[in-house]
Specification:
2 copies of one chain form a homodimer.
Chain A: E1 2-8, E2 21-27, E3 36-44, H1 48-52, E4 73-80, E5 91-94, E6 101-104, E7 110-111, H2 119-122, H3 128-140, E8 148-152, H4 159-168, E9 172-177, H5 180-189, E10 194-197, H6 203-210, E11 215-220, H7 224-231, E12 234-242, H8 263-266, E13 270-273, H9 283-295, E14 303-307, H10 312-321, E15 327-331
Helix pairs in contact in A: 3-4, 3-9
């Protein structure tokens, strides 16, 4: 049996190019004792993947050259060799990488129930992006009823969940997204109180309009000038959650630091970084609560699903062009 | 009786110049009911004063044009008109401004005991700079035994106290200061574990040498490239206390934001601003504890005292050139 695998070949400088990866077709080896073979249906495409391609220590080891590109995934167990936990037909999620099949001993893989949520939701709202949103806005952002919450990347996999959780908790929520379609979506379908289109609006002016009283919590997925504009409108004791900085990930020069950081001093505010992996022991509790919200119709998710491992590169670039709607997913084998 | 007063005449762009202020000699009016006349002995010169000169809202109202320049001070009550709290001969500290005499109803003025500490100490270690150090490193920095603590402006009024408190609490302390005299002072006299001379050393290399295991707490008085270098060496869950940014106060362009701020994400670290005024209700408790440390010889202070209100401008500039040693004080009337 053949496994199409996307191999990481070259560390990119700036935006990845087609030769960053190489698609290979390799024969699947036999299972060793205690291993399982997983047929992967969906691969999660996330901005964090760009960081994993850089050399040097970060919160996680970089992907090594000639390895399968790292990615979260969801699929089905189709073969086992005396595995203590998984059996044929189990649906599971884990770090399967960008490939059609993966062999594993099952560590860091978890069963999912396809009757409770769709498979793509398990790598979206109930997967890393959802967990990032949940722990980021609740544990780091420490939102409370009545807070004015601003979130960037607001139509994305993380931002859309952040905003909806903040609404559930009684906050006023403003989202920043690119284009009127996304802005309409977060207000009309997700119930945000306001939206700013960073592609057509002056962000400083728009923030004055949407947050005339300032901001209590800013959940930052983008960095750059939007972070700077948010800093300039902090209220006393505001919290900034640094979750990502997608505007800076493909920089060839140094990251643009936030010039307005002294607003932290003036407003006795804080800026704190977070990495979702730290909350692993509480994932199941969070998934249960979020599953409940989904069932009650309080939490909506949208997945933007593209087809075919051959299309990985062009699909991946949609993360940075913004040309996608909701959680970006690549289908590699039909369910 | 004549009062020499330094009047704020012109908002500076960049470093203040001689015409930023005007020295006037004015007659002291009579006291109204409930007022006191204070003869000021010492004026506190602090980097924060530069911020108060800028137009626009900050954590405190800006000084208005044609007002006496705002400053902390310490002096003696020499005349009262039925004041409920103060009597002739009381030594007091408050916001007396850059002038020889001040008339006040006594609100926000506090009695001090010249037998327990010298008058300049009451505007230094036992005044705003000391309070800033105390609450900044303990309440915001949340130091604990064994932490590796880095402090910039380490020979200054705030930094020297920050480092000594961290030593008292069992931390390893590295200070950054300008010039070998200051570096020797913080190590040999104040007991810091190491020093970095930012005027002669490459800060990135020196930090590797002095903090090979990284930094748990960075107390930042200076901003700019030193903040960036510190960010690059954070340990997991590190805390940065943003107390000031003296390297940026006289910028004519935008502040240099910290390019390495994404280290907050990688290290799940936080950067938090503080303003000492928020801790006013606990000043007396802090002063008592610090007074105890001074009495036990655990906390040393050095005041660099210049003479004469006529010399305010050139003395003030020493804050930014670094040409001073310890807490900068201007004597305006002999004790």
């Amino acid at each position: 049996m053949i496994n199409k695998q996307l191999i990481f070949k070259k560390r990119p400088v700036g935006l990845p190019s087609a030769d960053t990866w190489e698609l290979q077709s390799n024969t699947i080896p036999d299972l060793a004792q205690g291993e399982v073979l997983i047929q992967q249906h969906y691969i999660s495409l996330d901005p964090a993947m760009r960081g994993w391609m850089n050399e040097g220590k970060s919160y996680i080891e970089p992907v090594q050259i000639d390895e399968v590109m790292r990615a979260g995934s969801v699929g089905k167990v189709i073969k086992t060799n005396n595995h203590p936990k998984f059996k044929d037909g189990d649906y599971v999620t884990g770090w399967g990488g960008v490939q059609q099949y993966v062999i594993t001993n099952g560590s860091n893989w978890y069963k999912v129930d396809p009757n409770l949520a769709s498979l793509p939701q398990y790598i979206g709202t109930l997967g890393m992006p959802g967990m990032t949103a949940y722990f980021g806005i609740l544990e780091v952002g420490k939102i409370k009823e009545g807070d004015i919450v601003l979130v960037s990347g607001a139509a994305g996999a993380v931002g859309s969940i952040v905003g909806q959780i903040a609404k559930i908790k009684g906050c006023k929520v403003i989202g920043i997204a690119g284009g009127s379609k996304k802005c309409n979506y977060i207000v009309d379908e997700l119930g945000f109180d306001g939206a700013i289109d960073y592609k057509s609006e002056n962000i400083v002016e728009a923030l004055k309009r949407e947050c005339p009283k300032g901001i209590d919590v800013y959940f930052d997925n983008v960095g750059g000038e939007i972070l700077d504009a948010a800093l300039a409108r902090l209220r006393l004791h505001a919290r900034i959650v640094i979750c990502g900085a997608i505007s800076q990930y493909n920089n060839k020069k140094a990251v643009n630091g936030p010039s307005n950081y002294l607003s932290l001093l003036v407003n006795r505010a804080s800026m704190q970084g977070m990495v979702v992996l730290d909350y692993a022991k509480d994932y199941s509790k969070a998934a249960k609560e979020m599953g409940g919200w989904i069932a009650q119709g309080k939490l909506k998710s949208k997945e933007d699903i593209y087809d075919g491992i051959e299309n990985f590169h062009e699909t991946f670039l949609r993360l940075f062009s913004g040309d996608k709607m909701g959680k970006l997913v690549l289908k590699v084998i039909e369910e």
